[in-house]
């Protein structure tokens, strides 16, 4: 039996966007705690959003080379359930927190994802995103899905340039544990579009028919 694919809506900055995502079936929402991001949110604002969420919606903090204190502070104030590291964090750094984590890998030709899976074996999964020289994530561009090995031993979350028009095909081709979307459901950066979220969720459901 094919398991349903989970969905994370990332770059949430407003209560109404989080509630729309939850109502439409998202399993998780992501808060970006990298100050240089156009989707960055203050931890207290994220905490206010978390308080409004219904049960069984995970809250994920997204970081790029943070300090230990920043992770601990934001995780507490925002009420996080999962950490997502997008920088050059070592396994030792990621493992030191009381919360589970996933490690983002920026995929390009020559990257050994099996090696990364072995190195971050204590993670709850790898988030596979598009490589960019200037951006650690949120590029809005798709990478070559054929670069994902069939025998990857960790669950993986597919990210990078997903939207309602390609998510069904992406799921059919790669069979991820989950998909992650940000720019593909936005009106402008940091502001989500409920119609786009709904269309994206329908695309995920349509993948079961392909």
From TrEMBL:
Gene: trpF
Descriptive protein name: N-(5'-phosphoribosyl)anthranilate isomerase
Regions annotated as coiled coil: none
Membrane-traversing stretches: none
GO molecular function: phosphoribosylanthranilate isomerase activity
Pfam families cross-referenced by the UniProt entry: PRAI
Pathway: Amino-acid biosynthesis; L-tryptophan biosynthesis; L-tryptophan from chorismate: step 3/5
Residues in the signal sequence: none
Native organism taxonomy: Bacteria, Pseudomonadati, Pseudomonadota, Betaproteobacteria, Nitrosomonadales
């Amino acid at each position: 039996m094919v398991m349903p694919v989970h969905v994370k809506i990332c770059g949430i900055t407003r209560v109404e966007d989080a509630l729309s995502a939850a109502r439409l079936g998202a399993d998780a929402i992501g808060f970006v705690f990298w100050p240089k991001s156009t989707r960055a949110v203050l931890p207290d604002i994220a905490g206010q959003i978390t308080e409004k969420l219904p049960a069984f919606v995970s809250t994920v903090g997204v970081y790029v080379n943070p300090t230990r204190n920043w992770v601990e502070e934001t995780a507490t104030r925002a009420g996080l359930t999962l950490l997502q590291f997008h920088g050059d964090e070592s396994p030792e750094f990621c493992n030191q927190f009381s919360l589970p984590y996933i490690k983002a890998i920026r995929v390009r030709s020559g990257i050994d994802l099996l090696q990364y899976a072995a190195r971050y074996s204590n993670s709850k999964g790898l988030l596979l995103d598009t490589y960019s020289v200037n951006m650690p994530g949120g590029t809005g561009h798709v990478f070559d899905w054929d670069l994902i090995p069939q025998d990857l031993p960790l669950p993986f979350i597919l990210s990078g340039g997903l939207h309602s028009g390609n998510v069904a095909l992406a799921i059919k081709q790669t069979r991820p544990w989950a998909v992650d979307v940000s720019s593909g459901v936005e009106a402008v950066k940091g502001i989500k579009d409920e119609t786009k979220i709904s269309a994206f969720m329908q695309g995920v459901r349509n993948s079961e028919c392909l």
